[in-house]
What does this fold into?
Amino acid sequence: MSTSTTKAAPAEDLVGRWRIGLWLSYGLIVLGIAVQVFWLSPQSWPGSLNDPVRFLFDSHDIGVFFRSSAWAVGGGTLYRDVPSEYPLAANLIFGAIRFLASLVTEPDRHLWGFTLIWILCGLSVLAGCLRLASQESCDGVSLIWLLPGVVYFAALRFDIYPAFALLLAMAALRRQRLLRSAGWLGVAIALKGFALFLVPCMAMYVLHLAGIRKALIFSVVCLVPYAAMTLITLLFSGLDGLLSSYLFHAKRSFNGESLWDGFYLRFLVRWFPGLPAFLTIGFSIGAAWLRPRSFDRLIDACLVAVVGFTVSTVFYSPQFCLWILAIASFSERQRILLAAYGVCLVTYFYFPVAFDIVWNGGSRIPLRIAVTTVTLLRLLLIVTAARPPAATLRWAEPPSG
It folds into this structure.
């Protein structure tokens, strides 16, 4: 048996199991919707579970984006009259969609128009992610982008935009197009600031690849969009406006779904309030300390930085799976891809399913199981990525060009 045949066999077997998991998860969703609609009346749910599980649609975050975009239709100055927890780059997306909605709908229908356009835009960006993943990744990895949790949060959350920018940055860096990669990473940072934690390990890789001068240029270019947006915000909203979104995130506390909640470690944060920030920075520095000298090892380092951020903060958001997948899609390590698949698969059953059961008075056990499973899978990702691989499983030839 040839070497190529030996490598292809487990890949085909694993992709087949992924495909089964994909169809099974959608089958369970259809079953859940059918039970909710045709069998169970609101009064028959366990406990006081009177509201439906949001299997297909969740308006909460879209409502936040809509309110943040009032400035685009004459509702006042952003951060002064229009509060927002998001940076300027994100609000430019919100504002563009709000303005477009105002052109095609009546004033009392702006929210409906905004929602429809938002979902269409999110799914369009997801299609771009899927296309890029099919070109850049091992065979079958694009299936992960079709899992229910990925589609759900791509359509109904904001993180698909910085995740796509990160995908483009990694694809460009793989081809050693340093300035293009730095530019796209800069877009990701401007859209969601915690992408900053990727800069040290990526700069370390560029240092090995092209020398200290190119590494410094790469780092500076990464920061230009973020710095420009910060300066613009300061000029039109003042210092208070600039700090408002940062203060919102600085005040965020336990949400019952983080590592600290899942493993009953809140007492450590009470004793050492700076521990989450210390660990977040530590994971970023640790990722750079891996000193990646190959693109495969860079993917490992980036996973340490990003997943490290998601496990060290006092809150966890289910849409973080998009960030994890954006990096893991480039990996050729079977355990990393399995863990990423697991995170994206379980995330949907953690939110909205288990979360809504608890929210409406049902048992907390499903949510506890889902949160613990997602946390363990993220810890597995960090441990696996931090260790040098014994071997990689190449399921497709790296792209040329």
